[in-house]
Amino acid sequence: MSYRPRIVITDDEIRMTESLKILLGDKGYDIDTFQNGHDALNFLGTQECDLVLMDVMMPVMNGFEALSHIRNHHPEVTVIIMTGQASIDSAIRALRGGAYDYLCKPFEYDELIKKVENALGHRRLSREKNLIHHQLQSTEARYQYLVHNSPDIIFTLSSQNKFVFITDKIKNCTSVSSQDLLGRNFTSIVYHQDVDKVTKYFREIRSGKVTKDLLELRFKCESCGHNGSPCTGSHPEMELKAVTMTNGSAEGAGDQPSEIYGIIRDITQRRRDEEEKRALESQLRQAQKMEAIGTLAGGIAHDFNNLLMAIQGNISMLLMHCDATHPHHERLKKIERHIENGSKLTSQLLGYARKGKYEVKPIDLNRTIEDTAQTFGRMKKEIRFYLALAPDLAPIEADSSQIEQVLMNLFLNAADAMPGGGNITVKSTTVDHSIIKSGFYKPKPGRYVLMSIRDTGIGMDEKTKERIFEPFFTTKEMGRGTGLGLASVYGIIKGHHGFIEVESAVSGGTTFYIYIPASEAAIPEMAAGASENILRGEGTILLVDDEEGILEIGKSMLENLGYQVLTSRTAEEALSCYETHKDGIKLVLLDMIMPGMNGGKIYDRIKAINPQVKVLLISGYSIEGEAREILARGCNGFIQKPFKIKELAKKIGDIIGTQIHSSSL
């Protein structure tokens, strides 16, 4: 439905108002008539109106008075004054009073229609102008809000690259207000090493030959000198995007330098986050690689321990039947010592894989440090030790021999870095978990014992430092190192639920920081030495192992200790054999790693057959992990391969009871 303009006609002569209503009504206007100005003004107070035709001479309130009221209270309404007393003065008075036009009575129809249409046209244009003005105000307010609340810095540059406009966000990056920057060159806030590339970037933008869409640059920091000299401060890192603005110059007026507007984004935190992410990803890849290598190393060590077990078992058997006067006794002892050396090598591999031999109990780390440093110092007299050990150091739950191995390996590593001699400083203290530096570790809340070992050696570069805990990685010449020392250190500390960090610089020495959870338990008293005699027994033992060589030598060892032996190579054979002979079997020797069904499941199945069964676990791995879980379910003991016959005899004796055999090894 089209809009119908509303016209108010005010005249004290009813014939005039009715005539005008008829004439204008035919044009499609809505007409309201009044006989005095007071009534007309009351109507305008409640209704919208586009045009008022008003006579000058009226009772109560004349036309000029009504016109003044309309100008003050309804300025949007257009007014045409009508008068029967035509004069220049009255016309000027009407126009000065705010009237759009005036009509002198009597007037022609065409004159009336023309002036009414002109007045309504003026009213329409005025309304449209006001609407556009309000829209512009709204757009401007929206623009101002968006610009000044943008997280980025928005700016405009003159043709000389001087700031014409810049948002207040610039102060967050430069400590300079936007007002202080107006009229200054853009490069006044740029770090001096990036000034040339910024100048080139703006030049390319104006020429239309931009080689890059975004430009990365650095702003000056607070410590930068006014002359652009280098500084040691941290420079905000920014990302710049800029385009040219038309300067309104006429075409063909010559090449005019263009103005530039652009956006600056602070990417300092993003860069830090990216660097931290890269560092964490690198640490994760390193941890995953070391975990994979550890699994491989553990598997190799386990299989090698099985081979050593077969050799050790045969040597133990031979030694039982020849005394020290036998011509082969010394050679057999040498072979046994080589087996022990091989076992130490696999122990280092298992240490790295965190599957080494652990006998965990509360220990005094300070005592272990002092004893190991004293022993090492006697071997390497060119090394001087400086100990700074906390007197109130908390105990740790650890395997004493494993911690000694950690110290020995670190001392050897330090000595190798100081071929001409040097100093090793060992410190110990109790700390809170929050002091552990690496963001990759997730230490459990609580107290930790911190041990630091610092040398004055040649140090390492970053590339070497990244690989020092890898098995078989060594910087020594061929034949001088296995590359297992630091690898086993890493594995042992991880196996004790601890953490290890290293700091080093070329020619600046190396420091290892080792964190092990503190214990609230008391340190036990030293136990008296055990007897070296072999313990014998009697009864039937079921030996379960998938290795034929282990079954053969194990059977012989047990028979020499006085036992009858049943053997099984598979889980099915073991379960069937135990079901058949359960009343006569005094003990089951069960290997942890079996094909098809592992030792834990076999134990549970045997336990279901006889809840009172006695089981001794054997494995090339350590007691940690699944073995400890089986022990927690009621298993009676554990022994790690390779073991000597007297060690086996003692373990069996502890479980089922034995008698002492008079001979000893």
Can you summarize this structure?
The protein is of the alpha/beta class and 665 residues long. It is built from 19 helices and 24 strands.
Question: What would you note in describing this structure?
Answer:
The chain is an alpha/beta fold and about 675 residues long. The protein folds into four domains: about 5-130, 3-Layer(aba) Sandwich (Rossmann fold); about 155-250 and about 255-265, PAS domain (Beta-Lactamase, 2-Layer Sandwich), CATH 3.30.450.20; about 360-515, Histidine kinase-like ATPase, C-terminal domain (Heat Shock Protein 90), CATH 3.30.565.10; about 535-665, Rossmann fold, CATH 3.40.50.2300. It has 19 helices and 24 strands. Strands 2-1-3-4-5 form a five-stranded parallel β-sheet, sandwiched between helices. Strands 7-6-10-9-8 form a five-stranded antiparallel β-sheet. Strands 12-14-15-17-16 form a five-stranded mixed β-sheet, with helices on one face. Strand 21 (about 585-590), helix 17 (about 600-610) and strand 22 (about 615-620) form a beta-alpha-beta unit. Helix 9 (about 270-320) runs antiparallel to helix 10 and helix 10 (about 330-350) packs across helix 14 (about 485-495). The longest helix is centred in the middle third of the chain and has 53 residues, at about 270-320. Mean pLDDT is about 80; it is low at about 250-255, about 480 and about 660-665.
